[in-house]
UniProtKB/TrEMBL annotation:
GO terms for cellular component: eukaryotic translation initiation factor 2B complex. Pfam families: NTP_transferase (PF00483). Signal peptide: none annotated. This is Nucleotidyl transferase domain-containing protein.
């Protein structure tokens, strides 16, 4: 069945505008979930009884995205079959989803974006996410802010979505954080420095020129990278021109900001509301599962806008019961035997 429409929901995309496109990188480009991903891609692993990819598609549908390209190499046949057999294949869903098989030599997000450039499928500004994203952030608001900025600054090629969070936040990966140097007034990212968990990084070097050219900056280490980017059409071509760009953050963002030849700007959008997290490892898998059941991802919850096939009812204590199940008032859950 097609996605549920919210009553009185404002129209997200103007009729005169080009359809909003999105690119989903369905490959994880790492082995963190092996052996679970030996015979199945990470984006099809179930979370709260629905494939991860379906949660990502639901997130984009809520934002008004109309055309989605799913870029896949590993287990591409399974990804295509999952899309064809899902409710998103229904024309009434409002989404046009096109799976694209990349070359066998695609080993990084940079390789995938170079394939996107080769296919020539991007016609306007687009949303770039991974196939393991769960989010209820109003991406349409980020797109509007990005396009408004592009009207006055054609060199603004990317807007990265981040959220403020403590270092101990459970959806924040210990070995995957960064230091952002921002212009306080415009939120332009002036410098990006990845911080590795091991070996621990104790010193971050900020170019002196940034201090001279910008009178009011802020240095932030309290951001969670939501892995949601609004990109201009130029981004895939920049990956094509720079074959050493592999990772989007460590290589592309860092490379653009430190390049003397590329006069391009990258901005941050600090989301004050909403939820966004990637299921990048078993730790985040556990955290995101609990956040969904605790309704931090509303309206993406098991009893409303649920991407799976089963209809659930929400009971007190964050308990979810399938709508066709009748429980005795005396029924108790089985406890596992002691080890």
């Amino acid at each position: 069945m097609p996605p549920k429409a919210s009553v009185g929901k404002e129209k997200l995309v103007d009729e005169d505008e080009e359809p909003l496109q999105a690119v989903i990188l369905a490959d994880s480009f790492n082995n963190r979930f092996k052996p679970l991903t030996t015979n199945k891609p990470r984006c099809l692993l179930p979370i709260c009884n629905a494939p991860l990819l379906d949660w990502t598609l639901e997130s984009l549908a809520l934002a008004g995205v109309q055309e989605i390209f799913v870029i896949c190499r590993s287990h591409a046949d399974q990804v295509k079959a999952a899309i064809q057999n899902s409710r998103w294949a229904n024309p009434a869903s409002g989404l046009k989803i096109t799976p694209i098989l990349t070359a066998k030599q695609t080993f990084s997000p940079g390789d995938a974006l170079r394939d996107i450039y080769t296919h020539g499928i991007i016609q306007s500004d687009f949303v770039l996410v991974y196939g393991d994203l769960v989010s209820n952030i109003r991406i349409d608001d980020v797109v509007r802010a990005h396009k408004e900025r592009r009207r006055t600054n054609k060199d603004a090629i990317m807007t990265m979505v981040v959220k403020e969070a403590s270092l101990a936040h459970r959806t924040r990966s210990p070995g995957d954080s960064a230091v952002y140097v921002l212009d306080r007034e415009t939120a332009e990212c002036l410098h990006y420095e990845p911080v590795t968990g091991y070996p621990p990084k104790k010193v971050v070097r900020i170019p002196r020129e940034i201090m001279k050219e910008h009178s009011d900056i802020e240095i932030r280490h309290d951001f969670i990278d939501c892995a949601i980017d609004i990109c201009s059409v130029e981004v895939p071509s920049l990956f094509q021109d720079n074959f050493d760009y592999g990772d989007i953050r460590r290589d592309f963002v860092h490379g653009v900001l430190t390049s003397d030849l590329l006069v391009k700007n990258i901005y941050c959008y600090i989301a004050k509301e909403g939820y966004a997290a990637r299921v990048k490892d078993t730790r985040s898998y556990d955290a995101v599962s609990k956040d969904i059941l605790s309704r931090w991802t509303f309206p993406l919850v098991p009893d409303d806008n649920y991407p799976g096939d089963t209809a659930y009812e929400h009971l007190r204590g964050n308990k979810y019961v399938a709508a066709d199940v009748v429980l005795s008032r005396y029924a108790l859950p089985l406890r596992p035997p002691p080890l």
